[in-house]
Amino acid sequence: MEGNILLLAGLLATIWITLGVYIAGRFYPNYNHKTQFCSELGAAGSPTEKLSPLINNYPLGVLFCVFGWAVTQVASDTLSLTFVGWLIVIHGVGTWVAGFFPMDKDPYTDAPTLSCQIHSHAGFIMLLSLLVAPIIVAFSDVAIEFRVFSGLSASAAFFYLYKMSRAYKLRHNLGLYQRISYWIKLVWLAALSVLLWQAT
Fold this sequence. Notes:
Layout: H1 2-7, H2 9-26, H3 51-74, H4 79-100, H5 114-138, H6 144-170, H7 174-199
């Protein structure tokens, strides 16, 4: 039963971050989810600099790490899923680092602080970890339906990541595309959570 509960941490993380970002945004005057990064909620000097990592990064890091570890335990004889579990743990650690080192309030600054640089590198690792994980699952030996779902999720997340990079240059709707890309990966994570929970 303990294993079942831990495997649901992936589903809980998806629900938690959705509520956490919404709640933090309510305490940030004039915050726009379509045009601003999620990380701007915890940016240095923002109204929610302390609140956002407290309700988002730190508890989410725990949930990601717990879920990733649980995946490695139930899939100890499957190399691909074990690797996916560790990628999720890495995502959790990156979530902690990104929360502890805030980005600069202006995401377009020409001279980012050291804290912002560390935040950006942690964010890149987070992005890569949950982009690679579904690709690995797509070529694993899990049910064919979930393999197809994983491949489609990775493709859709990459597409909206590309849209975000273009939106960043145009300074238009970058927050919207960031959220779509990230939440596609989170929905995949939640689905993996439920799939493995049901299988144990």
